[in-house]
Structure prediction request, 184 residues.
Amino acid sequence: MRLGIFGGTFNPIHIGHLLLAQNARETLRLDQVLFIPARIPPHKQTSKLLPASLRLKLVKLAIRKNPSFAVSDMELKRPGTSYTIDTVLQLRKQFPTGRFFLLIGSDLLAVRWRGWDKLRRLCTIVVAQRPGDNPSPRQPGVRLLPMPQLEIASSDIRDRLAKNRSIRYWVPEAVERALLRYGG
Prediction:
Protein backbone atom coordinates (compact mmCIF):
# COMPACT_ATOMS: atom_id res chain seq x y z
CA MET A 1 0.00 0.00 0.00
CA ARG A 2 1.25 3.44 -0.96
CA LEU A 3 0.03 5.74 1.82
CA GLY A 4 0.17 9.52 1.83
CA ILE A 5 0.39 10.87 5.38
CA PHE A 6 -0.98 14.40 5.62
CA GLY A 7 -0.84 15.84 9.10
CA GLY A 8 -1.56 19.35 10.27
CA THR A 9 -3.87 21.42 12.38
CA PHE A 10 -6.44 21.82 9.58
CA ASN A 11 -7.58 24.95 11.40
CA PRO A 12 -9.78 24.79 9.30
CA ILE A 13 -9.22 22.52 6.32
CA HIS A 14 -9.48 24.38 2.99
CA ILE A 15 -9.27 23.80 -0.74
CA GLY A 16 -5.48 24.23 -0.73
CA HIS A 17 -5.17 21.19 1.55
CA LEU A 18 -7.49 19.19 -0.67
CA LEU A 19 -5.68 20.23 -3.83
CA LEU A 20 -2.33 19.20 -2.34
CA ALA A 21 -3.73 15.81 -1.27
CA GLN A 22 -5.33 15.09 -4.65
CA ASN A 23 -2.26 16.22 -6.57
CA ALA A 24 -0.03 14.02 -4.41
CA ARG A 25 -2.40 11.05 -4.80
CA GLU A 26 -2.30 11.29 -8.58
CA THR A 27 1.36 12.23 -9.00
CA LEU A 28 2.70 9.63 -6.57
CA ARG A 29 0.08 6.97 -7.41
CA LEU A 30 -1.00 6.75 -3.77
CA ASP A 31 -3.62 4.22 -2.76
CA GLN A 32 -4.82 6.49 0.00
CA VAL A 33 -4.15 9.88 1.59
CA LEU A 34 -4.62 9.83 5.35
CA PHE A 35 -5.45 13.20 6.93
CA ILE A 36 -4.28 13.36 10.56
CA PRO A 37 -5.33 16.44 12.55
CA ALA A 38 -2.77 17.37 15.22
CA ARG A 39 -3.79 17.60 18.86
CA ILE A 40 -1.02 19.95 19.95
CA PRO A 41 1.28 21.05 17.12
CA PRO A 42 4.91 21.57 18.13
CA HIS A 43 5.34 24.68 15.95
CA LYS A 44 2.07 26.64 16.30
CA GLN A 45 0.20 28.48 19.04
CA THR A 46 -2.61 26.34 20.38
CA SER A 47 -4.61 29.34 21.62
CA LYS A 48 -5.83 29.98 18.08
CA LEU A 49 -6.91 26.40 17.38
CA LEU A 50 -10.52 25.53 16.78
CA PRO A 51 -11.65 22.73 19.12
CA ALA A 52 -10.16 19.37 18.10
CA SER A 53 -13.58 17.77 17.72
CA LEU A 54 -14.63 20.51 15.29
CA ARG A 55 -11.40 20.29 13.26
CA LEU A 56 -11.89 16.51 12.97
CA LYS A 57 -15.51 16.97 11.92
CA LEU A 58 -14.52 19.54 9.28
CA VAL A 59 -11.92 17.20 7.78
CA LYS A 60 -14.49 14.39 7.64
CA LEU A 61 -16.96 16.70 5.89
CA ALA A 62 -14.32 17.90 3.42
CA ILE A 63 -13.15 14.44 2.33
CA ARG A 64 -16.33 12.38 2.66
CA LYS A 65 -16.95 12.06 -1.09
CA ASN A 66 -13.40 11.00 -2.00
CA PRO A 67 -12.86 7.25 -1.49
CA SER A 68 -9.08 7.75 -1.74
CA PHE A 69 -9.07 10.04 1.30
CA ALA A 70 -9.40 8.95 4.93
CA VAL A 71 -8.99 10.61 8.30
CA SER A 72 -7.43 9.37 11.53
CA ASP A 73 -7.87 10.78 15.02
CA MET A 74 -4.74 9.03 16.34
CA GLU A 75 -2.98 12.29 17.23
CA LEU A 76 -6.11 13.72 18.84
CA LYS A 77 -6.29 10.66 21.10
CA ARG A 78 -2.60 10.69 22.01
CA PRO A 79 -1.74 12.97 24.95
CA GLY A 80 0.86 15.69 24.64
CA THR A 81 2.47 17.28 21.63
CA SER A 82 1.76 15.70 18.24
CA TYR A 83 5.11 14.68 16.82
CA THR A 84 5.05 13.23 13.31
CA ILE A 85 7.70 10.63 14.13
CA ASP A 86 5.39 9.11 16.78
CA THR A 87 2.55 8.99 14.26
CA VAL A 88 4.68 7.35 11.57
CA LEU A 89 5.95 4.74 14.04
CA GLN A 90 2.35 3.98 15.02
CA LEU A 91 1.32 3.70 11.35
CA ARG A 92 4.31 1.42 10.67
CA LYS A 93 2.82 -1.05 13.18
CA GLN A 94 -0.56 -0.89 11.41
CA PHE A 95 0.88 -1.15 7.91
CA PRO A 96 4.21 -3.01 8.23
CA THR A 97 4.59 -3.45 4.46
CA GLY A 98 3.25 -0.01 3.50
CA ARG A 99 5.24 2.57 1.61
CA PHE A 100 4.81 5.96 3.29
CA PHE A 101 4.87 9.42 1.75
CA LEU A 102 4.83 12.31 4.22
CA LEU A 103 3.12 15.32 2.62
CA ILE A 104 4.31 18.72 3.85
CA GLY A 105 4.28 22.31 2.66
CA SER A 106 7.60 23.89 1.75
CA ASP A 107 7.27 26.28 4.71
CA LEU A 108 7.79 23.28 7.01
CA LEU A 109 11.28 22.59 5.67
CA ALA A 110 12.48 25.44 7.89
CA VAL A 111 10.97 23.84 11.01
CA ARG A 112 13.10 21.69 13.28
CA TRP A 113 11.53 18.22 13.21
CA ARG A 114 11.86 15.69 15.99
CA GLY A 115 13.37 12.51 14.50
CA TRP A 116 13.93 14.05 11.05
CA ASP A 117 16.60 11.53 10.00
CA LYS A 118 14.43 8.63 11.09
CA LEU A 119 11.42 10.15 9.28
CA ARG A 120 13.45 10.30 6.07
CA ARG A 121 14.27 6.60 6.45
CA LEU A 122 10.67 5.59 7.14
CA CYS A 123 8.98 7.86 4.56
CA THR A 124 9.57 9.70 1.36
CA ILE A 125 9.21 13.33 2.39
CA VAL A 126 7.09 15.06 -0.25
CA VAL A 127 7.40 18.85 -0.26
CA ALA A 128 4.65 20.88 -1.91
CA GLN A 129 5.70 24.37 -2.89
CA ARG A 130 3.78 27.16 -1.17
CA PRO A 131 3.32 30.61 -2.69
CA GLY A 132 6.43 32.70 -2.20
CA ASP A 133 8.63 29.72 -1.29
CA ASN A 134 11.22 28.31 -3.64
CA PRO A 135 12.37 25.12 -1.96
CA SER A 136 15.24 23.06 -3.23
CA PRO A 137 15.22 19.96 -1.06
CA ARG A 138 18.60 18.38 -1.72
CA GLN A 139 18.38 15.69 0.89
CA PRO A 140 18.04 11.96 0.40
CA GLY A 141 14.43 10.88 0.85
CA VAL A 142 13.01 14.35 0.06
CA ARG A 143 11.03 14.92 -3.12
CA LEU A 144 9.50 18.12 -4.54
CA LEU A 145 5.84 17.97 -5.57
CA PRO A 146 4.97 20.50 -8.29
CA MET A 147 1.83 22.36 -7.22
CA PRO A 148 -0.52 24.94 -8.68
CA GLN A 149 0.09 28.07 -6.62
CA LEU A 150 -2.90 29.05 -4.52
CA GLU A 151 -2.58 31.87 -1.99
CA ILE A 152 -4.77 30.53 0.79
CA ALA A 153 -4.15 29.78 4.44
CA SER A 154 -6.35 28.69 7.32
CA SER A 155 -5.56 31.98 9.05
CA ASP A 156 -7.11 33.82 6.07
CA ILE A 157 -10.33 31.86 6.55
CA ARG A 158 -10.43 32.56 10.30
CA ASP A 159 -9.79 36.24 9.61
CA ARG A 160 -12.58 36.39 7.01
CA LEU A 161 -15.00 34.72 9.43
CA ALA A 162 -14.06 37.17 12.19
CA LYS A 163 -14.83 40.06 9.81
CA ASN A 164 -18.11 38.53 8.62
CA ARG A 165 -16.69 38.05 5.13
CA SER A 166 -17.60 35.15 2.87
CA ILE A 167 -15.50 31.99 2.82
CA ARG A 168 -17.41 30.58 -0.13
CA TYR A 169 -15.05 28.73 -2.50
CA TRP A 170 -12.26 28.88 0.09
CA VAL A 171 -13.55 25.71 1.73
CA PRO A 172 -15.92 22.94 0.61
CA GLU A 173 -19.60 23.85 1.04
CA ALA A 174 -20.12 21.38 3.88
CA VAL A 175 -17.17 22.88 5.77
CA GLU A 176 -18.52 26.40 5.21
CA ARG A 177 -21.95 25.40 6.59
CA ALA A 178 -20.37 23.75 9.65
CA LEU A 179 -18.11 26.73 10.36
CA LEU A 180 -21.03 29.13 10.13
CA ARG A 181 -23.15 26.88 12.33
CA TYR A 182 -20.59 26.02 15.02
CA GLY A 183 -18.48 29.15 14.81
CA GLY A 184 -14.97 29.43 13.48
